[in-house]
Amino acid sequence: MDTLLYDLRYAARKLRHSPGFTIVAVATLGVAIGATTAMFSIVNSVLLNALPFAEPSRLVYVQSTDSKGAPLPVSPQDLIDYRARSRSFTDLVAMDGGESINLSRAGAPALRVTGARVGATFFSTLGVRPALGRTFTPGEDEKAAPKVVVLAYDAWRRYFGSDPDVVGKSVAIDGESFRVIGVADPTLTLPGHPDLWIPAVWASYEIGDRARGQHSIAALGRLKPGVTVDAARRELSAVAAELGKEYPQHDAKVGAYVAPLADQVVGNVRRPLWSLLGAVAFVLLIACGNVANLQLARVATRESELAVRSALGAVRSRVLRQLIVESLLLSAAGAVIGALLAAWIVSGVTAFGPARLPRLAEIGIDGRVLAVTCAITALAGLFFGLVPAVSIARTDVARVLRDGARGSSGGPARLRSTLIVAQLALTTVLLVGAGLLIRSFERLVNVDPGFRADHLIVFGAGVGGPAFQYDAQVNTFAANVLRRIQALPGVSNAAVVAARPLDANPTFGASAAYWDAAGPKPEPGHENVAAILPVSPSYFDVMKAPFVRGRAFTEGENRLDAAPVMVVNEALVRDHFKNENPIGRQIVFGISHNVTASPTDTVRVRGEIVGVVADERQNALSERTMPAAYVPFNTAPFATSFVVRTIIDPSSLARSVAATVGAVDRSVPVYELSTMDDAIGASVAQPRFYTALFGAFAAIALLLATLGIYGVIAYLVGQRTREFGIRLALGASSSDVARLVVGRGASLAIVGVALGAVGAVLLTRSIQALLFDTPAIDPFSFGAAALLMVGAALFAAWMPARRAARIDPAVAMRAE
């Protein structure tokens, strides 16, 4: 122990006497360890940590599947049968998230919030306890049960000021009174990050044999002990097959989907996060290589010192241990800086990361992360400590004492060059990956959305409850709002829609089977399906949506008593009409709704096609446009969102637009008010996040590799000062010497880039899932990365080359 303490004191003293080396080495390690720790914190929290529920491995996510085996929401009636006929679950409970509803509190304006309908045993199935009050009890999802609600923890803090007496108070949800019975645990965000949970009380149109086609919900299941996910999937598939035989009209092609709940929560971010962790591991390796090179250069200046210590009796193992202790001390100092940097990065990600990143609020630095950081620190210290130690072990002590300061052998120089080639190869891989993501992101943001996004304001208006129970009430409200908005100075036009494009949290989304009105209804499982998009006639002008054929419908056609018409998109024409002219054809959708309280006032969505409009990106810029039919809003006012085109800066009109809605009806909240440009920016937040992180890692790697090659070439110039002096004395020009030095840097760069290109071909396929309209082997990205890497290497070599070209031959040989 005394010897180790002596080594630590001696190492600290030596490092203190070399402040330049120490600062550069610690900063390099700090950045690399910090980035690695932060990235592992994200991966650990999102992918590795178990879900914060009781026995999470037994929790599964249940849906149906369509005729192609793709997941499909389950109908409530099918779920009732799944629950009654299966034996694999201790419980199988409905959960329906993402429903946009109005929340009213005493003495406060109404809010538009996200609600979830869940079965009464939802919380007990998860095994979670409330932060305040209680959760649902069996039977509270029956029609006769009192109306109760559980608040999400964040909603309780944001909307109720963390009021500890909120339990027992009444709130209005879509105009109906509910009693608050509890506040959920802060970790609970299922399903769909709701602000509150209400019991799933099934309406008459949601259950019964006729409702089996209403695929609208998902289910949470807890497996019985010993039952596997595969076994539960097989059993539910058999149940689904039975239902398909019993009810072929709706369930003929419907199967069952069962997956671990953790997979559903993580979604499609697993591969991107692992890829980013791999990228930051490359940065750590490059940093270790850099510090190892710095150590080699430092050891070269200490050869005489270390040789004298060996000659005076110090055993070689003691000298090697001293070097490793110095490296570990450097690594520990870098880890301290890295931990601080990691904490800063993690706090930034949780505060400003994309809202759709799963488990974002759970990201943090815990015991597992700190343990991994300590392991990284120790391994990094050993790695770049052993490299110079091996070099010293091969040093001829007698030669060093005899030659004095003439310089070391070529062994360390060759080792340093090898390390640089490895750094350049790893950096090239990262640059290619960053180039692919940047190119992909550029193509994504330049996708034609099918409309002009400039000078557009978009927002939702939360109509709901008894005041807006029937079509006429919604239509009157929408018409009044439109009239007032269109009269505002700076507004050129406005439209009302049931669901605006690129809405991150749509209040409405309906798709249904359709067929030719003149032909027979297709067999179950063989129907074409399209989205139904109710819009006012002015919508196409407001969005500047280009027509391919025909026209928009008129105000006169925006009435129930008018002949039904619709506009379809190009995708529907390709899907159903095989690029024939559809103008004048009539189609019928398998969806209807009641206009008034009278059961006879039922309207089926149908109409004559009067126009074909260009495809509009509906859900995301990266998603293929699905077939869609635009129908007059007044015939199907299922929800109310507005799009407003301005002739001035749209952000300057936001407050006036919101005030206009309040002037029509103070009980209707305005929500998600933004410009369309901001909405598009929000829709690409996740790919922007991945691109920014990968690009940052590549930039750090490029800087480290550039510094590394500069260090190698500068060391080369120092070692060959006498040689360059002789060359200049014998008639070589300064440019000849400079070319010789730059050539050395170029040769290292070419070898490193070549190896890196091969590695990129093998590794960049792992980020294919992140790319939009960009192949994993993209010549432009590979070429740009190679040119950037070679250019950086030549620049790094040029600076010591200038110094070599200015060597005074007389001074060089006299010093020798």
Describe this structure in words.
With 816 residues, the chain is of the alpha+beta class. The protein has 4 domains: 1-55 and 283-408, no CATH class; 67-253, no CATH class; 409-445 and 684-816, no CATH class; 463-668, no CATH class. Helix 3 (76-85) crosses helix 6 (229-246), helix 9 packs parallel to helix 12 and helix 15 (471-486) crosses helix 18 (654-664). Mean pLDDT is 84; it is low at 405-410.
How large, in whole angstroms, is the Cα Rg? Answer: 34 Å
The domain count comes to: 4
Shape: elongated
Q: Unreliable stretches, pLDDT < 50, 5 or more residues?
A: 405-410
Distance between the termini: 44 Å
Number of beta strands: 22
Strand content: 15-25%
Average pLDDT rating: 84
Percent helix among the residues?
40-55%
List the strand order in the largest sheet: 3-4-9-6-8-7
Look at the helices and sheets and give the structural class. alpha+beta
What is the makeup of the main sheet?
A: 6 strands, mixed, barrel
Q: Quickly count the helices.
A: 24
